[in-house]
Each structure stands twice: as structure tokens, then as C-alpha cells.
Design a protein that fits this description.
Length: about 500
């Protein structure tokens, strides 16, 4: 309050502020012509959400230059220039006014947009609150720090949301999932708007204490009315063989007469239909022709019942980078350790912070594996993805139990342990030469194929934390690893 009063007495009327929808680096290049003493970057709210402040005349010239270049800069309705050189006019007064401040330990975690670090509390003296007014507000940097540390809800408590656009830009640019919400809006400052904001937060997964919200309002819980069940069937309707055959093979009158003659081995009718002379070769051909038609119809019917997978080539991935922490699961005693090491090196080389865990070779490894995952992530990084190398190494080894090969059991344990450890990052399972996409593509290790079935079940049951299946060729080189990284980065997958 004292600082605001000082701004009103000293800085009001001397300056202003302008919002610019450009990146901070480009804005700094544009304002360099006026010098830091006349125009400064006041706030970096997002990747393309910047505010500048400074002298009135300099800002007018800057706005004209932006308009000439087609940049939609906009004046903010204030008549002072916070976070600019003009704040120096308040230094002595604020030193005196804020000197009595006696900071104490922070009760609520507080990430400073001045220092970019977590504040303990004692550093929030009068000098800090002067620097808070003088320096650039680094909101984008603070938002990225919170995203990297796993925070997923950002609520702007204000009379009207002005920072949510910059926050949302930062979330999207970081490739993360997070809720960005406001509290009140202009001309909507009552409890109805606040309750609506709470509802928006609730449907985005935020826990709301509804008992506290409705305390004293007289609101009561009521049972929802019952509703009629929707009688939708998700199975084939019953029908006769004739109905099925007719639906699959529409009847043509001419074709029908021809094939009826073939089925009866009626040489006379067939020669009349074809208007040819009968001979012994035609009589010998009829049984073979009849058998061919019957087998063709049977194969066509069976093909209509089968589930088939088709493969389409994907484009070559562009130069890609992996962000954040990647958890990589390998067996405790991999059969092809050199290959696993090559994959780990490729991930690290392309920007990933690789955390490796060795999966125990036991039938019930779930609990132990969950502990290993928590230990690998003990410093609290946000996990961008999980990569399983459990199948392509040692898939021909003896099964752990009679149920399935070792790689399949280990993959199942990994899926369960990730849930136990509350890791929601997408899981990618890698096999090698387990499936074929063309006749020339040989499957050298079909024992890995069950992982593809397990993967599809996992995708259905835990779609929110499933990435996909990747089958590498038998020989893995630098080009293959580059493609693998492209798939994991979501490029051309």
C-alpha cells in the first residue's frame, strides 16, 4: 500500500506501459533504439506475451513503429512506468518507507518472479520490494520452473484475468498438460462468478472443499433421479447362414443361373447358357470350378470375420529433441547390453535426462519395481516419458513362470509398478524383429509378439499413460536410433 501511494505521488503521469505479442528477445531488439533509460522490458509473461514500460513520448514512437511493421502492440491503461528506469525516482523514499518491514519465514511456498527461486521469507525485506518494482517480472521463467517441478494447476487470483494468456502460452510451448484458470472477471466480481471458477477448477481435476464453499448458504445434497438404461447392443444380431451369404454375396440373376449349373454339374444347361458345344473337357472342368467357387466363398466369409492390421510408412522424422526426464527400464542382466546402452546414449544425446532402472528377474517384481521407480525419481523431476527395453533383450531366455516369457512378465510388472508409483507419463514398449510389415520382413524373434497384445490391452485400460509400441529391426544402427527418437518425440509417429 505504501509503495502504491508513492507511485501515485511521484510516477503518475510520467510514463506508461504497452503490451507486445512478440518474443522477449525480439522486443529487446526493437526497443534498443530508445535505450534502457527510456523504454524497458517490464514483464515477460509468456513466449509471445511481453510488456514494456517507459517515457510517454518514447512509447508513442514505439507504438508507431510497431504499427508500421504490422505488430499489434497495445497501450495498457496506466499512466506510470513500473519496472523501468523511472522507478529509480522512488529509491530513497521507498528505502525509508519500507525500512520497518520485518520479514518472517514463509508459511506458503513462494516462487519469486524477481529471483526465479523459492523464497524462504527472511529475504523479503524493504530492498526486495523495491527490486520487485524495478526489475523485469520474469513470469514465464517462473512458470516453466513450476512446470518442470510437476505443478499442473495455475490460478490467477485477480479482479480480471490478464496473465492467463501468457501462462497458457508457456504451458503449450513447454509441451505440458496443465490447467490455467482465473477467479473473477471484469463486471463479474460476485460469488456467482467465483463459484463458476471453482466449478471450472473442479472439472479440471482440482480438489475443491465443497462443504466450505456452500457453508451458510442453505445448500443441501440431493440424490440424482434415476434414468432409463440405453438398450444398445454391441454384439452381432442372430441370422441364418443364407442371410449371411446373401448379404456378403449379392445375387445377380445371370451369375446365379451360371453357378447353379456348375454346382449341379449340368453340362447341358451350362452349354445352353454359354451357347457352346458340349465336350468331355467341359464335363471334367465342372467339379474343379464348383470346388473353387465354394472355397472362395468360404475364404471371403472368414476374411470378413477377421481382425487385420495394415501398415503404412511414416515420413522420416525431422531433427528432434527430447525434453525432460525419461525413465528407461532394462533387465538386470540384459542379453544385449551393448544394444541397450546404444539406445540410452541416443536418448541422452537428443536432450533427455535419462534415469535408468534395472527390472528384477522375478515373477512378482511389482512392489520392488515401484520402489526402484520412486528412488530414481526421488529428486522430484516431472517425467516426460517411460521407455521399456525389457523385451528385445533376453526374449529367448527361459520363462520366469509357465504363464509367459520373461519379457512379457517383466513388462506387465512395469505397467503395474508405474501405476503404483503414480507415474502418468506415456509408456513406450520396444521390441526387436517381433512383427513383420511386409513379406520380405522376417520375424526373427516371435516370442516378443505377446508384448504387442499386452500393449494393446494396456492402451485400453490405461490410455492416459500409454505411449505406444515400437518394433526395431534386428540390426540397430544410428539411423534406426534417430527414427526411434523421432517417434518418442512425436514426430512422424
Amino acid at each position: 500500500a505504501l509503495r502504491s501511494q508513492a507511485i501515485g505521488r511521484v510516477l503518475a503521469g510520467l510514463g506508461g506501459m504497452v503490451s507486445v505479442p512478440l518474443a522477449a528477445a525480439e522486443v529487446r531488439e526493437r526497443i534498443a533504439a530508445w535505450g534502457e533509460e527510456r523504454i524497458s522490458v517490464a514483464a515477460v509473461n509468456g513466449p509471445s506475451s511481453v510488456v514494456v514500460s517507459g517515457e510517454v513520448q518514447a512509447l508513442e514512437e514505439f507504438l508507431a513503429a510497431c504499427e508500421a511493421d504490422g505488430v499489434r502492440a497495445k497501450r495498457i491503461a496506466v499512466d506510470y512506468a513500473s519496472h523501468s528506469a523511472q522507478v529509480e525516482l522512488l529509491r530513497e523514499e521507498l528505502d525509508t518507507l519500507l525500512a520497518p518491514i520485518a520479514p518472517r519465514a514463509a508459511a506458503v511456498p513462494f516462487l519469486s518472479t524477481v529471483t526465479g527461486e523459492w523464497v524462504e521469507g527472511p529475504e523479503l525485506d524493504g530492498g526486495y520490494w523495491f527490486r520487485n518494482l524495478r526489475r523485469t517480472v520474469e513470469l514465464e521463467r517462473a512458470t516453466r520452473t513450476l512446470l518442470d517441478q510437476g505443478f499442473g494447476v495455475f490460478i490467477e487470483s485477480s479482479p480480471h484475468p490478464v496473465l492467463t494468456v501468457g501462462l497458457q502460452e508457456t504451458v503449450e510451448d513447454a509441451g505440458r498438460e496443465a490447467a490455467v484458470l482465473g477467479s473473477l472477471r471484469r463486471n463479474e466480481g460476485g460469488p456467482e462468478r467465483f463459484w463458476l471458477s471453482l466449478g471450472e477448477a473442479y472439472v479440471r481435476g482440482v480438489t475443491v472443499d465443497w462443504d466450505a464453499v456452500f457453508a451458510g448458504t442453505g445448500a443441501q445434497r440431493v440424490d440424482l433421479p434415476t434414468y432409463a438404461f440405453q438398450q444398445d447392443h454391441f454384439w452381432l444380431e442372430s441370422g441364418t447362414v443364407e442371410d449371411t451369404d446373401t448379404a456378403a454375396h449379392p445375387v445377380d440373376a445371370v451369375d446365379a443361373r451360371f453357378w447353379e449349373a456348375v454346382e449341379r454339374h449340368d453340362v447341358a444347361a451350362l452349354t445352353a447358357e454359354l451357347d457352346i458345344d458340349a465336350d468331355e473337357s467341359l464335363a471334367a472342368l465342372l467339379p474343379a470350378l464348383s470346388s473353387w467357387r465354394r472355397q472362395s466363398q468360404e475364404r471371403s466369409t472368414v476374411d470378413g470375420w477377421r481382425y487385420r492390421i495394415t501398415w503404412k510408412p511414416a515420413p522420416e522424422p525431422a531433427a528432434t529433441r527430447l525434453d525432460g526426464t525419461w525413465l528407461v527400464a532394462v533387465p538386470q542382466a540384459p542379453a544385449d547390453a551393448e544394444q541397450a546402452a546404444a539406445v540410452l546414449h541416443a536418448l541422452a544425446e537428443h536432450g533427455a535426462d535419462v534415469r535408468q532402472i534395472a527390472v528384477p528377474g522375478t515373477h512378482d517384481a511389482r512392489a520392488e519395481l515401484a520402489g526402484l521407480i520412486r528412488e530414481a525419481l526421488a529428486d522430484g523431476p516431472a517425467v516426460a516419458g517411460v521407455l521399456s527395453l525389457l523385451t528385445p533383450v533376453g526374449s529367448d531366455a527361459e520363462p520366469i513362470g509357465a504363464a509367459a516369457p520373461a519379457g512379457v512378465i517383466a513388462t506387465l510388472s512395469l505397467v503395474q509398478a508405474l501405476g503404483d508409483a503414480e507415474v502418468t507419463a506415456p509408456l513406450w514398449c520396444v521390441t526387436r524383429a517381433a512383427v513383420s510389415v511386409a513379406r520380405s520382413d522376417r520375424r526373427t524373434d516371435p516370442a516378443q509378439a505377446p508384448v504387442w497384445g499386452l500393449g494393446r490391452v494396456t492402451a485400453l485400460e490405461h490410455g492416459e499413460r500409454w505411449g505406444g509400441l515400437v518394433d526395431l529391426p534386428a540390426e540397430v544402427d544410428a539411423r534406426v536410433l534417430e527414427r526411434l527418437v523421432g517417434v518418442l518425440a512425436g514426430d512422424g509417429a
